[in-house]
Amino acid sequence: MPIESARKMEEIRPSATVAVSDKARELALEGRDIINLGGGEPDFDTPEHVTEAGIKAIKDGRTHYVSSLGIPELRTAVSRKLYVENGLTYTPDEIMVNPGAKLGLYAAIMALIDHGDEVLIFDPSWVSYDAIIRLAGGTPVHVPLDRGDNFTIRREVLSEKITPNSRMILINSPNNPTGRILTLKELEVVAAAAEQHDLFVLSDEIYEKIAYDGNKPVSFGTVDGMLERTIVINGFSKAYAMTGWRLGYVAAKKALMKELLKVQQHSVTCAAAFTQYAGVAALEGPQEVIEDMVSVYDTRRRIITDGLNSLPGVSCETPEGAFYSFPDISGTGMSSMEFTNLLLTEAGVAVTPGIAFGECADGHVRLSFANSTKLIENAIARMKTLLT
Predict the structure, then answer these.
(1) 154 and 130 in contact (C-beta within 8 Å)?
(2) Which of 99, 105, 185, 239 has its CA 20 to 30 A from that of 46?
(3) E strand or H helix that includes residue 52
(4) Mean pLDDT score, 293-305
(5) Of 12-26, 143-157, 185-199, minimum mean pLDDT range
(6) Which residue has the higher pLDDT, 167 or 29?
(7) Distance of alpha carbon 178 from the chain centroid
């Protein structure tokens, strides 16, 4: 019997980043030598003291339901972290721990967006934003940024996309896929629009710890007058190499958190208890592990940027944060899908097509340098052989 899905699913596209990784794995199982630069996962192990805390929690019987907000110890640690590191004042009951930062995003959008409400997204943007908004019944409004302007947020570009149905602006810094860190001036452009049109701002800060050359991302809630209307999304996956632990958190003032909490209570109930004790260890333990990882990423960042800029028809800005390069491949005369398919089939290198991150990004592809230096160098060598 034919199965008909809900009509809204017709508007939801499968995740392009997951599709790339799945295709790379499929070819590898067939015996192909594939270098996968398409994913977004640290290649480091979770720090040992964090792992040990999780194991201890399991052995201590921390394997049952906990508060939907999260265990008090972790919410207190997150509250302290946000104050000390980000200049944000949230009490522990204004923190909700989620099974992954993505669920925090979903809870915020589900709780605050009604059918027909518009959420503005700056493209290039992470592939799941659009889908999450649609699943929640909202309408994603893509704000294409100019690649010739290094994807900078400008007042006039944002203003022309705001309508009476606008409800929220979603920002991401450091950005996936571009690696850009939003400047204070750009944040002030967003703040002015939010104030003028009474909009919420959802600030995805999952890559905040991965920044280079002395850059420090500014948390949007610290911009004058923005704390009350800001929802902060963060987590442990990227900074502490804890992707498989599924542990994130969302911070919002009490009136907002009351609504977000309902979504969590009626969906996943809570994040796994033992992972939350590991999260406490991550925040309260030695932070040098992050510095060590970022130092390695920095070396790889320079190698991949130099390598990409040596390829004919390719140019690449040096990323300021995260662990992605987003080279302009328009000089090759190919679309991002054509370029991606050619690399995978002819060179055995998997990357993500720019079109997945918005139409304005079609002249780009995304490569992750959360891979070993050897793999990155081999990938560049294969690309050079193919393109010259």
Answers:
(1) no
(2) 105
(3) helix 48-59
(4) 98
(5) 12-26
(6) 167
(7) 11
